[in-house]
Amino acid sequence: MPRIRVETDPTYEVVVGDDVLPECATIIDGYRKAVIVTQIGVAQNYREALGSDRWFISIGEGETAKSMETVDMLGRAFADGGLLRDDLVVAFGGGVVGDTAGLAAALFHRGVALLQIPTTLVAQVDAAIGGKTAVNLPEGKNLIGAFHQPIAVMADTSTLSTLPDREFRSGLGEVVKYGLMPEGRNILDLISARIEAIRARDEVTLTEIVVACATIKAQVVAADPEERLGLRSNLNFGHTLAHALETGGGYSFTHGEAVGVGLVFAMALAVAMHRVDATELENLRSILDGLGLPSQVEGKPDQDNLLAIMRRDKKSRGGLAFVLPSANGLELVEDPPPKALAAAFLAVGA
Ligand SMILES: NC(=O)c1ccc[n+]([C@@H]2O[C@H](COP(=O)([O-])OP(=O)(O)OC[C@H]3O[C@@H](n4cnc5c(N)ncnc54)[C@H](O)[C@@H]3O)[C@@H](O)[C@H]2O)c1
Fold this sequence. Notes:
This protein is of the alpha/beta class. It folds into two domains: 162 residues, 3-Layer(aba) Sandwich (Rossmann fold); 182 residues, Dehydroquinate synthase-like, alpha domain (Up-down Bundle), CATH 1.20.1090. The protein is built from 15 helices and eleven strands. Strand 3, helix 2 and strand 4 form a beta-alpha-beta unit. Helix 11 packs across helix 12 and helix 12 runs antiparallel to helix 13. The radius of gyration is 20 Å and the shape is globular. The N and C termini lie far apart (46 Å). The relative contact order is 0.11. Bound molecules: nicotinamide-adenine-dinucleotide. Nicotinamide-adenine-dinucleotide binds next to helix 2, helix 3, helix 5, helix 6 and helix 7.
C-alpha cells in the first residue's frame, strides 16, 4: 500500500489504498482505550469494518455540527467513558468529523493521540493531512482551532464508493486545484487519461489520485507546518472567490464546486494579466466540464458583495489577494487591475 511520510515533528504516514480499514483496526487495538468519532452515514456503512463492538460517538451533520457545543459534548463523553491521556481519539468521516474530533483530541487532557480515517475525497486529499483542526463560531468559519498532527492518516479509497455524487464531485474540485499546481501536472494527465474511471470511482485510479494529491499536501505541510511562512497559501489557489461564493454569495455550491468556479476566476485573472496563455483557461474549463463540475455561477453575481467578502479573505492585507499561476509557478498577487477583475468576473458568468 502506498505510504507517504509527512515530515512534521513528530512525523507520520498517510497510508492510501482500497483495503486500509483492517490496518486501522490493528492500530486501534494497540491502545488501551479508543473512541471513534463519526457520523451516522459513515457508521452505517463501515462500523463493521472497524469492529462494531468498539466505542463509537456520532456527531451531527454539516457546518453547524462543527461547533464548540459538539466539542463540549465530545469532551464530556470522553470523560464519562474514561478516556485517559494516553488513549486514542479516532476521527472516522469527512472533514467535519476530522476538524471537530481533531480539536476535541487537541484539547482533551491538553492533547491525546488522534488517528485520522478520512472517508470523503475532500478529507483524503486535503482535510485529514496537516494537523489543522477547528470549529466554527457564529462570527465565522474555523475561528477556534489548533494544530494537532495525527499519529497517522489512513485513507481507504473503497469508502468513497458510498459517497453521495455531489460530495464526490466536490472532492474533485480540490483534486483539480492540485493538478494546476506546478508539482501536480501528473494529476491533470491522470484526469485526462482516466476520466471515465474517475467518474466510475475505480478504486485503483482513485488511489493514484489520492496518493498524488496527498504527496503534494504532505510536502507543503512539512515546509510550513504551522502556516507561519505563507507557503501553505498555494493550497489556497482558487479559494479567494470560492470562499466568497460559499459564505456570502447566496449560492448553494458545495466547497469543491465553489473551488472549481474560483479556479476559473483565478485563471481568467492570470490570463488578463498576461501571466498565462488563454489556452490554460480553456483546458481548465474542459477538465471541470468532464468531471461534472460547474465553471460559472448561475444568475448575475453581485460583484460588489463578492469583492467586499474577498477583501476579508485570510490572505488579504487590506486589499484583494489571489494565488495566481505564472510561468514560474503560483504566486500571491495583490490588488489586480480593475480591467483584469472585470474579465475574471465575465469568465465566471458575470
Ligand atoms: N483541516 C483542514 O485542513 C481542512 C481542509 C479542507 C476542508 N476542511 C473542512 O472540511 C469540511 C468539509 O469536509 P467534507 O467535504 O469531507 O464534508 P463532510 O465532512 O460534511 O462530509 C460530507 C457528507 O458525507 C458523509 N460521508 C462521509 N463519508 C462518507 C462515506 N464514505 N459514505 C457515505 N457518506 C459519507 C458525511 O456524513 C456528510 O454527510 C469543511 O468544514 C472544511 O472546513 C478542513
